[in-house]
Amino acid sequence: MKINVLGAACEVGRSGFLVNCDGVNFLLDYGVLFGRRGDPPQYPQHVKPKEIDSVIITHAHLDHSGFVPSLFVSGRCNVYATPPTLELSHLLIEDMLKIEKTMHPFDIPELNKMMQYSKEIGYKEKVVRGNSSFEFRDSGHVIGGSTVLVESEKKRLFYTGDINLRGSRLLNKADLDFGEIDVLITESTKVRIHKPSKCQEMSQSRD
Ligand SMILES: [Zn+2]
Description:
Helix content: 10-25%
Distance between the termini: 44 Å
Number of domains: 1
CATH architecture: 4-Layer Sandwich
Strand order of the largest sheet: 1-2-3-4-5-6
CATH class: Alpha Beta
Oligomer: single chain
Radius of gyration: 17 Å
Bound molecules: zinc ion
Protein backbone atom coordinates (compact mmCIF):
# COMPACT_ATOMS: atom_id res chain seq x y z
CA MET A 1 0.00 0.00 0.00
CA LYS A 2 1.51 3.34 -1.10
CA ILE A 3 0.03 6.68 -0.05
CA ASN A 4 0.51 9.94 -1.93
CA VAL A 5 -0.58 13.09 -0.14
CA LEU A 6 -1.98 15.46 -2.79
CA GLY A 7 -3.33 18.14 -0.47
CA ALA A 8 -4.47 19.01 3.09
CA ALA A 9 -1.10 18.32 4.70
CA CYS A 10 -0.38 21.01 7.32
CA GLU A 11 -3.27 23.09 5.94
CA VAL A 12 -7.06 23.16 5.98
CA GLY A 13 -8.75 22.43 2.65
CA ARG A 14 -8.10 20.71 -0.72
CA SER A 15 -8.10 17.21 0.77
CA GLY A 16 -6.72 14.56 -1.58
CA PHE A 17 -4.98 11.26 -0.85
CA LEU A 18 -4.04 8.74 -3.53
CA VAL A 19 -3.74 5.23 -2.16
CA ASN A 20 -2.14 2.61 -4.40
CA CYS A 21 -3.29 -0.85 -3.35
CA ASP A 22 -1.52 -3.62 -5.23
CA GLY A 23 -1.80 -1.65 -8.51
CA VAL A 24 -5.30 -0.26 -7.92
CA ASN A 25 -5.49 3.47 -7.18
CA PHE A 26 -8.12 4.84 -4.82
CA LEU A 27 -8.44 8.63 -4.59
CA LEU A 28 -9.76 9.60 -1.17
CA ASP A 29 -11.45 13.01 -1.53
CA TYR A 30 -10.47 15.75 -4.00
CA GLY A 31 -11.41 19.16 -2.64
CA VAL A 32 -10.90 22.89 -3.05
CA LEU A 33 -9.08 25.35 -0.80
CA PHE A 34 -10.83 28.69 -1.18
CA GLY A 35 -8.73 31.80 -1.58
CA ARG A 36 -9.10 34.66 0.85
CA ARG A 37 -9.95 38.21 -0.23
CA GLY A 38 -10.25 37.41 -3.93
CA ASP A 39 -7.18 35.14 -4.14
CA PRO A 40 -7.72 32.27 -6.57
CA PRO A 41 -8.74 28.89 -5.17
CA GLN A 42 -6.09 26.21 -4.69
CA TYR A 43 -6.39 22.57 -5.59
CA PRO A 44 -4.73 19.27 -4.66
CA GLN A 45 -1.84 18.06 -6.85
CA HIS A 46 -2.82 16.87 -10.29
CA VAL A 47 -3.57 13.21 -10.88
CA LYS A 48 -4.46 11.61 -14.23
CA PRO A 49 -8.02 10.27 -14.24
CA LYS A 50 -6.96 7.19 -16.23
CA GLU A 51 -4.69 6.22 -13.32
CA ILE A 52 -7.56 6.26 -10.82
CA ASP A 53 -9.76 3.24 -10.30
CA SER A 54 -12.18 4.87 -7.85
CA VAL A 55 -12.71 8.31 -6.37
CA ILE A 56 -14.16 7.98 -2.89
CA ILE A 57 -15.86 11.10 -1.49
CA THR A 58 -16.25 11.16 2.30
CA HIS A 59 -18.72 14.05 2.46
CA ALA A 60 -20.18 16.89 0.47
CA HIS A 61 -18.24 19.84 1.91
CA LEU A 62 -16.29 21.44 -0.91
CA ASP A 63 -12.88 21.01 0.73
CA HIS A 64 -13.48 17.27 0.19
CA SER A 65 -15.60 17.09 -2.97
CA GLY A 66 -15.18 20.36 -4.90
CA PHE A 67 -12.41 19.38 -7.32
CA VAL A 68 -13.75 15.97 -8.39
CA PRO A 69 -15.35 17.38 -11.62
CA SER A 70 -11.84 18.38 -12.83
CA LEU A 71 -11.19 14.65 -13.41
CA PHE A 72 -13.86 14.73 -16.12
CA VAL A 73 -12.37 17.53 -18.25
CA SER A 74 -10.49 15.04 -20.42
CA GLY A 75 -11.14 11.73 -18.72
CA ARG A 76 -13.46 9.72 -16.54
CA CYS A 77 -13.38 7.45 -13.51
CA ASN A 78 -15.75 5.84 -11.03
CA VAL A 79 -16.95 7.99 -8.16
CA TYR A 80 -18.33 6.44 -4.97
CA ALA A 81 -20.26 8.17 -2.19
CA THR A 82 -23.37 7.77 -0.08
CA PRO A 83 -26.64 8.98 -1.72
CA PRO A 84 -26.88 12.18 0.40
CA THR A 85 -23.21 13.00 -0.28
CA LEU A 86 -23.73 12.72 -4.03
CA GLU A 87 -26.87 14.83 -4.00
CA LEU A 88 -25.37 17.50 -1.74
CA SER A 89 -22.04 17.56 -3.63
CA HIS A 90 -23.93 18.20 -6.87
CA LEU A 91 -25.80 21.09 -5.25
CA LEU A 92 -22.75 22.65 -3.57
CA ILE A 93 -20.43 22.37 -6.59
CA GLU A 94 -23.12 23.87 -8.84
CA ASP A 95 -23.46 26.73 -6.38
CA MET A 96 -19.67 27.21 -6.25
CA LEU A 97 -19.57 27.47 -10.06
CA LYS A 98 -22.38 30.05 -10.05
CA ILE A 99 -20.72 32.20 -7.38
CA GLU A 100 -17.14 31.91 -8.66
CA LYS A 101 -17.79 32.12 -12.39
CA THR A 102 -14.69 31.36 -14.53
CA MET A 103 -12.47 30.78 -11.48
CA HIS A 104 -12.38 26.98 -11.80
CA PRO A 105 -10.93 24.87 -14.62
CA PHE A 106 -14.22 23.02 -15.15
CA ASP A 107 -17.90 23.85 -15.50
CA ILE A 108 -21.41 22.35 -15.40
CA PRO A 109 -20.80 19.76 -18.19
CA GLU A 110 -17.93 18.21 -16.16
CA LEU A 111 -20.11 18.24 -13.03
CA ASN A 112 -22.88 16.47 -14.95
CA LYS A 113 -20.38 13.89 -16.22
CA MET A 114 -19.18 13.33 -12.65
CA MET A 115 -22.76 12.59 -11.61
CA GLN A 116 -23.12 10.20 -14.55
CA TYR A 117 -20.16 8.13 -13.34
CA SER A 118 -21.20 8.23 -9.69
CA LYS A 119 -22.26 5.17 -7.77
CA GLU A 120 -24.22 5.26 -4.53
CA ILE A 121 -23.13 2.99 -1.71
CA GLY A 122 -24.24 2.73 1.89
CA TYR A 123 -22.29 2.30 5.11
CA LYS A 124 -20.48 -1.06 5.49
CA GLU A 125 -21.17 -1.95 1.86
CA LYS A 126 -17.82 -3.34 0.76
CA VAL A 127 -16.60 -2.52 -2.78
CA VAL A 128 -13.96 -4.93 -4.10
CA ARG A 129 -11.49 -3.81 -6.80
CA GLY A 130 -8.76 -6.28 -7.71
CA ASN A 131 -7.21 -7.64 -4.50
CA SER A 132 -8.35 -4.63 -2.49
CA SER A 133 -11.55 -3.24 -1.06
CA PHE A 134 -13.04 -0.20 0.63
CA GLU A 135 -16.16 0.56 2.62
CA PHE A 136 -17.77 3.58 4.26
CA ARG A 137 -18.53 4.02 7.94
CA ASP A 138 -20.70 6.72 9.49
CA SER A 139 -18.65 9.82 10.39
CA GLY A 140 -21.45 11.65 12.25
CA HIS A 141 -20.22 14.93 10.72
CA VAL A 142 -22.97 15.80 8.21
CA ILE A 143 -25.81 13.90 6.55
CA GLY A 144 -24.27 11.12 4.44
CA GLY A 145 -20.82 11.85 5.91
CA SER A 146 -18.42 8.92 5.95
CA THR A 147 -15.06 7.64 6.95
CA VAL A 148 -13.33 5.03 4.74
CA LEU A 149 -11.79 1.69 5.62
CA VAL A 150 -9.39 0.45 2.91
CA GLU A 151 -8.08 -3.12 3.01
CA SER A 152 -5.30 -4.48 0.83
CA GLU A 153 -2.34 -6.84 1.09
CA LYS A 154 -3.31 -7.70 4.69
CA LYS A 155 -3.05 -4.02 5.63
CA ARG A 156 -5.91 -1.83 6.83
CA LEU A 157 -6.04 1.93 6.37
CA PHE A 158 -8.67 4.09 8.05
CA TYR A 159 -9.27 7.53 6.54
CA THR A 160 -11.40 10.26 8.01
CA GLY A 161 -12.39 13.75 7.00
CA ASP A 162 -14.21 15.52 9.80
CA ILE A 163 -15.82 13.25 12.37
CA ASN A 164 -18.19 13.86 15.27
CA LEU A 165 -17.85 11.69 18.35
CA ARG A 166 -21.00 12.93 20.10
CA GLY A 167 -23.89 12.52 17.71
CA SER A 168 -27.07 14.56 17.83
CA ARG A 169 -30.78 14.21 17.14
CA LEU A 170 -30.06 14.28 13.42
CA LEU A 171 -26.79 12.36 13.21
CA ASN A 172 -25.31 9.23 14.76
CA LYS A 173 -21.94 9.54 16.42
CA ALA A 174 -18.96 8.40 14.34
CA ASP A 175 -18.70 4.62 13.98
CA LEU A 176 -15.18 3.88 15.18
CA ASP A 177 -15.71 0.16 15.68
CA PHE A 178 -13.31 -0.78 12.90
CA GLY A 179 -10.90 -3.10 14.72
CA GLU A 180 -7.14 -2.93 14.40
CA ILE A 181 -5.64 -0.76 11.70
CA ASP A 182 -2.15 -0.24 10.29
CA VAL A 183 -2.52 3.35 9.03
CA LEU A 184 -4.71 6.24 10.15
CA ILE A 185 -5.16 9.42 8.10
CA THR A 186 -7.37 11.86 9.95
CA GLU A 187 -8.42 15.49 9.80
CA SER A 188 -7.22 17.47 12.79
CA THR A 189 -8.47 20.97 12.10
CA LYS A 190 -9.60 21.54 15.66
CA VAL A 191 -7.58 20.17 18.54
CA ARG A 192 -9.68 21.70 21.32
CA ILE A 193 -12.21 19.60 23.23
CA HIS A 194 -15.56 21.27 22.68
CA LYS A 195 -18.28 21.57 25.27
CA PRO A 196 -21.59 20.17 24.01
CA SER A 197 -23.63 22.80 22.17
CA LYS A 198 -26.87 24.06 23.79
CA CYS A 199 -28.81 22.01 21.28
CA GLN A 200 -26.84 18.82 22.13
CA GLU A 201 -27.29 19.42 25.88
CA MET A 202 -31.03 19.80 25.41
CA SER A 203 -31.22 16.68 23.28
CA GLN A 204 -29.19 14.64 25.82
CA SER A 205 -31.31 15.80 28.77
CA ARG A 206 -34.49 14.76 26.93
CA ASP A 207 -33.21 11.29 25.93
ZN1 LIG B 1 -16.69 18.83 6.55
